[in-house]
DNA sequence: CGCGTGTCATCTGTTGACCCCCGACGGGCG
DNA sequence: CGCCCGTCGGGGGTCAACAGATGACACGCG
């Protein structure tokens, strides 16, 4: 075989290894949306058989990262603008629930962690480092979900963000300046520190809704191929 | 082969047929939680090979209906009390979003349909027909999700309710009398007819929260085996 | 008598090959 | 000239067999 060297698989079952490998490839945009995934070719290039690959593709399909057209093979899922807006709405609901659950449970460590993340975002915003800002921003939002103590909520939220994938970082740029986002984070943290879950939730909803509204604008259209 | 007669599979791919068959078996509680699913035996009893069966089990695992223990086989998922409470919280958030999206979009047909369902629930409550009440109740809640126009929300909601499965109908009985539920539905519909999404959402949240609170009580513990 | 270890059966994980369906292409008919 | 139908190729769907691992049972040692 030719290309068996690059992916260095080890301990776990092949299906899981392939699953996570492809997941990573898709999330990092090395596999562009719309890419057709031929089973034979893919299996051969990974140095495995079609069985585990098919199961991995099935799992990816269940998570919404690939679309399986019966008898016609798998394709990396391509999001429409409408679907992206829908995902944004659900995300808003999930994170709103998360922050309401999280605020009464936050430890002092949690709060200092949140403030640290917020401070990092301020720095990155000043440097206009959008990608670093995006990374920390995602961690910031995720912190509330983790602190909610709701395992299922956590899973669904992560799955949703994964599906929204790299479009998410681009939608951040739609906001124009990162300063507004920073200010909104500050307001949210203030409500959190004051121990007011409902106010924090309302602020968070408004915060998430910003790019969502912008998605309706015509400038957003070119984020979506096809 | 011996047992190829009972399940009459036809057109679609085996994987999907098996998937939906097992899904139905689990949701109808013909397969009790905790049941071990041996691949060879199951495949033989269905008159198929292990390949499609494994893929179907993988999909069921992704939907949370079965749990796959590596190298140890698949088991029909057994919910803990904690997990059920978590699912209830997420459900509340999803339906709250759904009704807020749905109210401004409701057609006249939608409203009459909702009132029809509410009327049916009144009847079933008077007859103390809990199972019929439960069925209509589920349809009532689902109506809002469908009317939200958010496809993804719809999928996630259905998946969540499926996972909660038959515990859901039992949790309804925790309410004690069905009358309170009927009254809450009436209040919700009133807010819906008045075109007040926020009030409807708050009422719906309170409505869903009722069994959720009861789940903490010790009487609820015996709903969960293990 | 209890604990650790070696063996064994059984089931999952994986493989490679076969079958059939779907979509495309080309020829014939209206 | 355009539409319909038959044929052909490619690729997904399915199957039966191999191999590795896991949990259980039993034997032997302390």
Based on the model shown, name its key terms:
3-stranded antiparallel beta sheet; mainly alpha; globular; about 230 residues; homodimer; DNA-binding
- How many β-strands of chain A, per DSSP? 3
Q: Report, as a whole number of angstroms, the end-to-end distance of chain A.
A: 36 Å
Strand order of the largest sheet of chain A: 1-3-2
What is the string of helix and strand elements of chain A?
HEHHEEHHHHHHH
Biggest interface, CB < 8 A: A-B, 28 and 28 residues
Low-confidence stretches of chain A: 1-9
Question: Please, what is the oligomeric state?
Answer: homodimer
Q: What is the mean predicted local confidence, pLDDT of chain A?
A: 88
* Shape, per Cα inertia axes of chain A: globular
Percentage of residues assigned to helices of chain A: 55-70%
Largest sheet of chain A: 3 strands, antiparallel
How many DSSP helices of chain A? 10
The radius of gyration computed from the alpha-carbon positions of chain A, rounded to a whole number of angstroms, is 20 Å
Q: What structural category do the secondary elements of chain A indicate?
A: mainly alpha
Could you tell me the strand content of chain A as a percent range?
Answer: under 5%
């Amino acid at each position: 075989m030719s290309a068996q060297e690059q992916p260095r698989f080890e301990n776990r079952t092949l299906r899981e290894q392939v699953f996570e490998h492809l997941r990573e490839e898709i999330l990092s945009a090395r596999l562009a949306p719309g890419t057709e995934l031929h089973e034979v070719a893919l299996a051969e290039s990974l140095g495995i058989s079609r069985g585990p690959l098919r199961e991995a593709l099935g799992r990816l399909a269940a998570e919404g990262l690939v679309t399986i057209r019966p008898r016609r093979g798998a394709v990396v899922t391509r999001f429409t603008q409408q679907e992206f807006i829908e995902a944004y709405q659900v995300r808003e609901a999930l994170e709103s629930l998360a922050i309401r659950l999280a605020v009464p449970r936050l430890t002092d460590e949690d709060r200092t962690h949140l403030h640290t993340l917020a401070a990092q975002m301020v720095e990155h915003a000043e440097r206009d480092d959008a990608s670093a800002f995006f990374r920390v921003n995602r961690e910031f939002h995720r912190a509330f979900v983790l602190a909610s103590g709701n395992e299922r909520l956590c899973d669904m939220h992560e799955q949703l963000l994964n599906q929204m994938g790299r479009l998410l970082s681009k939608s951040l740029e739609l906001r124009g300046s990162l300063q507004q986002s920073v200010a909104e984070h500050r307001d949210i943290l203030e409500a959190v520190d004051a121990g007011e879950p409902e106010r924090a939730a309302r602020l968070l909803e408004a915060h998430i809704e910003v790019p969502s509204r912008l998605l309706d604008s015509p400038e957003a259209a070119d984020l979506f191929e096809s």
